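Appendix B, Record 12. Input sequence as logged:
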Amino acid sequence: MKLFSVLLVNDNLTKELGLKQAGVQSKAVNLKEIKKFHVFAIMFIVALLITALPARADDDNVVHANSGSRNDIQAAIDAAPENGTVVIPEGEFNIQGPRISVNKNLTITGSGDKETILNGRSGLDWIFHVVTEGFFRLTNVVLDGNNARGGVMMRSDDLTMRVDNSTLTNFTYRGVESYGGVRGVIDNNEFLENHTTDVVVYGDNDASWDRPLALGSDDAVYVEDNLFRHHRAPNSHSIASNRGARYVFRHNRIENGSQNTNPIDAHGNFYHGRGSRSYEIYGNEIDVGHSYMGMFLRGGTGVVFDNEFTGSFTHPLVLENYRSFRRGANGRFASYPAPDQIQDLHIWNNTINGDDVTPYIHDRGVTRQHIQENRDFFMEELEDYEPYTYPHPLTAEDFVASRRASSVAVTEPSSSSGSESTSSSSTVEAVTSVSSEPATSVTTEPANSSTPEPATSSTSEAVTSVTSQPVSTPSSNINSRSSVTTRNSTVGRSMPIESVSTRAENRTGNSVEDDVKAGMIDHENPWDKFVKVFGIFGR
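Logged structural output:
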C-alpha cells in the first residue's frame, strides 16, 4: 500500500510537473503569437495611415495624389504649393463630382504614357475648373466625359496656360473652354467624339476690343498640332469663339465624317457680349464626308491661309454678320459698319480638293451690303504679317522646371555641354500630412445652358499672382514662315491618331515624363519606399 501511495504521489507530481512545463511552453508560444500579432497590427496600422494620407511630397514642389479619385486629386491640389506639380497615378478612376477645383498656379500631370484615365459621368459640369492668375498646365491624361458636360474650364483675368498631350473624349458640351484674360497653348491633344464644341475661347469682352490688334503675338489662345475626330458624335465646332476672343488655330487635323456643321467658327456680336476680336487660321487640314460649311466667320478680323479642305462641302468658307440680318431693339438692321463686323480680313491660298476656295457671303438681311470684297475682306496676303513663333514657346522648354526654378531660393545649374543650361531645385524627400477633407462648396452650372457661367467667388484663399518669366526658345525649334506654309506637304491625309503624340515627342522639349526619368520627379510607390526604410516589413 505504501509503495502504491508513493507511486501514486510520484505519478501525480509528474503530471503536475508536466502540466507546469506545458503551461510554460504554452505561455512561450502565446508570447510569440502576441509579438507576431503586434508586428502585424503595427504593419496594418501603418499601412492604413499611409493609404489615408491624401498626398505625398517628393520635394517642396511635387505632390503625388494618393489615387485618381476626385477627393484624392483635390487633396493633392490643396496640399501642393504655388508653382507646384501634382502627379496623378496610373489607373482608371471615376470622377463622380463635384468638379475638381484649381485655385493656385499649378501643373497637373498623369503618369505613364497617358495611363491616367479620369472618367466623368452624366450631370457633371466640369472635371477640372481652374480659377487662378498666373499659370496652369494639364498634361498626359485621358479625360473621358462619359456624357459629362465639360472637361477643362479655365477662367481668369490673367492666366498663361498649357493643355497638352492629352485625350479629351465623350463630352456633351465642351472639351476645353477658356474665359477672360487667358492666353497660352492647347497642343498635341486628341479631341474625339465630343458633342457641340471641342474648344471654346471666350475673351475679355470690351477690354479685348480696347487693346490694339496684335496679330502674330502671344496675346491669343493658340490651338496647334491637335487631332479632332468625329465619326459618330454630332458636333457643331472643333473651335468656336466669342466675347472679344483672340485665337490662333494652326496645324491641326480635323476628321469629321459627316458629323460636323462648321468645324472652324468665330461668332459675332449678338449672343455673348462683344464679337470675336481676331483669329489666325492657317496650315490646317479639314477632311469630311460631307459638311455644310468648313469655316463660319461672323465678325472680327484676321488672316485665313494655307488651309486644305478635302471632301464634300456646301460652302467651305462662309462670311456673315449677326447684326446685318438680326434686327435690333428698334426693329431695324444695323447701319454700316455693323457692330464688331468683319473688317480687314485677309484670305489667301486655301484649297478644296485642290481648287481655290472662294468665300460665300450669306444673302440675308443686309449682309451683302455690309461685307464686300476689297473693302471688308481681301483675297490677298496681309502685308508685313508674320506668324508667331511655331511651335509655341511654351512647348519649347519644360514648364515644370522653369516654374520650379522660379519658386525656390536655392538652385543648382545643371552641367552644360554647349547647349542651354537649365536649373533644378535641390530635392528634399518628405511625407506631407495634410487634411483630406476636400472643398465641396461649388457653384454648379445648369446642364443645358449655353450661356457662359457667371463669375464665381468660390475661391477661399488668396491667390498669389506670379509674374510670368519669358521662356527662352531654342533656335532649333523656331520654324520660319516658309516652313509653316509648307508643313501640309509632310502630313499624310490618313494621319493615324497616334501621329499627334508622335510629333510631340519630336519637338515639345522636356516633358513631365522626362523629369521623372531624370529623377526630378519620383514616381516610387509610397509603400515600397516605406518598406525600404523599415526593412522589418520586408522580412
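Residues 2-51 form one domain.
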